[in-house]
């Protein structure tokens, strides 16, 4: 037996990728398929474990059919197992020709090579760093409406590395949803944030609470003041669109009651510290998901804040100060409420197929902004099992987002938000001795995948592009 893992090849282009030749030495598994345009293939790779393993090596040479572009997959073990893409025959937005893109290697899991091109074929994008990915993509995205753009999203975004137990029975494994803080999530490409403000100890903080019968369980994360500072830090450097959705608000100091109007006003006052708020006078019921990206970030950053208001609460004059209701940004959001990966996957892809159909015929068209909730939810048997931590279940589901979800997307049916826990992380971070999450690497594959959706699927739909 060798040392095996996988490489998922995501083809976000209109061209097939074909193998011209391969070679290998001491590699028990090294067979490469043609990757059809718009599809992903997960390929099993196995390094040898007999003899001098530092000699393990292999190459697979890919041609991008119909173009002069080429790339090579390299396997090496100089000190550890590693897969590398050599851009010996092409360049991309992130990587000049001749670049060596290190993908790493994950035993019994996958690394990803995500490569796409915009609808005009003018620029290619690959797995890499995407700090200002919206600005990088403005050539193709500027004139698209928000409901025709895909972006990474952070579930319960304020529950990052800052964790404070709020009730008996809460701990980081059953309450912490994000490995990164708000700023680091922004840097990793997230643009849609699920923020759940609560009052705790008289202060505005992020919260993650749920009721089990008459008992509330949960804890607190970053303070709202800290999140405001981090968003401002990001938007002072990068002219990107940041969407913040406020929901699940509670007064944990007073029996977990719903917020009063005056408390909502206090929250809006705290959030008025956000710079670059997108403001419109008298927005009424305008649907801003139908606005173009260029309306928001042609020459500036924009922060668009949506408040999921309960009955009896209104925005008042805050509607003119950069705060909007759900009527201003309608979206489809239905999570699966399961701890089973296959059940979640089948449920989310079925909901996408049933609720998204971007066609010309108004009678058949389904075009609401769609959140793909690629999240698993702890069930009672998981709550005290640290190995079934929320972030560990997110890592369990990560590889299927890149391969199986991708293969279910089409130009007529693709999501607007790739909505995940532990954004930017693909490995388990909650491991024995379970005293705190361990250090793991940050990865930009969700952002690369969103760009590939914009290029490989949305960019092939004439209704989206106007072509």
UniProtKB/TrEMBL annotation:
GO terms for molecular function: phosphoric diester hydrolase activity. InterPro entries: PI-PLC_domain, PLC-like_Pdiesterase_TIM-brl. GO terms for biological process: lipid metabolic process. The lineage of its organism: Eukaryota, Fungi, Dikarya, Ascomycota, Pezizomycotina. This is PLC-like phosphodiesterase. It comes from the Eukaryota.
